């Protein structure tokens, strides 16, 4: 299996890149944000638990998120590997992901981090908000809170994966295909 954590702040382009990479490398793309939005739309119990956090741009509690992620991985163990998009976002989630991979006798091969300046993130998210229908893209203060939460709670995970020699930083500014190329170079040498 080949398992990639696609990392970066909100608006870095993780979802867009994951769509290209899942085709190219035949991997299962798991976006925890997409799974939450699907559950909110379908008014499930999980959706109800997650909604208030997402609307404010806060993180959904680890317990809820980790349980959900474990279930999706379990259901897709026939795939060639995973692209994790938007997970892990806390150290507890990163530990849980390592435990899960261990339990499947596999591992995270790389954290590929898309680096984009903050003002560009806000600009991209406001632009996306015009068509995404996402409440958390529509309000600049929620966008700025998501970026703040990223720096306060999530960015530390770079150190987590650096310690494991799995961190690869990529310039996330450029055309979509240029960035796919940059990421592919990393994946091809794993
Ligand atoms: P995203 O689609 O990755 O931008 O995620 C949208 C929102 O879903 C985030 O702002 C969080 O509220 C929630 N979310 C997604 N992934 C996670 C995660 N791994 N841990 C906690 N909350 C998450």
Descriptive notes:
With 190 residues, this protein is an alpha/beta fold. It has one domain: P-loop containing nucleotide triphosphate hydrolases (Rossmann fold, 3-Layer(aba) Sandwich). It is 61% helix and 14% strand. The protein has ten helices and five strands. Strands 2-3-1-4-5 form a five-stranded parallel sheet, sandwiched between helices. The termini are close together. The site of adenosine monophosphate has 17 residues, from α2 and α3.
Short description:
Helices cover 61% and strands 14% of the residues.
Task: Describe the secondary-structure layout.
Layout (H helix, E strand, L loop, with lengths): L1 E6 L6 H12 L2 E4 H10 L3 H12 L5 H14 L5 E5 L5 H13 L6 E6 L2 H15 L2 H4 L1 H15 L2 H7 L3 E5 L4 H13 L2
Helix pairs in contact: 1-10, 2-3, 4-5, 6-8
- Strand residue percentage: 5-15%
**Could you tell me how far the N terminus lies from the C terminus, measured between alpha carbons in angstroms?**
12 Å
The H/E string reads EHEHHHEHEHHHHEH
Bound molecules: adenosine monophosphate
Quaternary structure classification:
single chain
